[in-house]
Amino acid sequence: MRRININKKGAEMAIGTLVVIVLAILVLVLLAFGFGAGWKTLLERLAIFGGTRVNVDTLKTSCTQACLTSQYFEYCCVQRDIIYKDEAGKTTRVDKSEDRSCMANSLIRPEECTLDCTDVRQTDQCKDLVPG
After folding, report:
1. What are the extents of the domains in the chain?
2. Deepest in the core among 76, 100, 114, 129, taking most CB within 10 A?
């Protein structure tokens, strides 16, 4: 009886090469989408797979900092992506058709920040950001 030598290293290398090629193509697609559509859009789309994190504490800190340093535009106009847990424990995102600025969402108490947003909210730059 003759023994047949089977070269298994070639098959393993072919599978490994295919895995590397697929991963490289995936990375290239992600880079192309990130540069083409914007990194924020990419990260929002990827959040669907990994879930979203509650970010109210982070936003409260950010809004407090904007207030303390008198950054009117940041406090009054910039729309933030607000994610919280509702009463049922489900992660919920504030609707993007609503005003999501620090001023509108009471992320910090009004007595903690005395910035007057009236003039800033009238600027064209701010009107472009604020829905409605």
Report:
1. 8-50, 56-129
2. 76
- Point out which residues pair with 91 in neighbouring strands: 85
Q: Which residues contact 132 (CB under 8 A, 6 or more apart)?
A: 97, 99
| Cα dihedral: 112, 118, 123, 126 (round 10) | 40
Q: What distance in Å separates the CA atoms of residue 103 and residue 63, rounded to the nearest whole number?
A: 8
* Residues sharing a CB contact under 8 Å with residue 81, sequence separation 6 or more, in sequence order: 44, 55, 93, 94, 100
pTM above 0.90, yes or no: no
**Contact present, 113 and 66 (Cβ < 8 Å):** no
**Amino acid (one-letter) located at 16:** G
Q: Residue 89 to residues 20, 85, 122: CA-CA distances in angstroms?
A: 40, 5, 38
**Helices (H), ranges, the chain:** 8-37, 39-50, 56-68, 72-76, 102-105, 118-121, 124-129
Q: What are phi and psi of 99, to 5 degrees?
A: -70, 120
What's the pLDDT tens digit per position in 89-110? 777 777 777 888 888 877 777 7
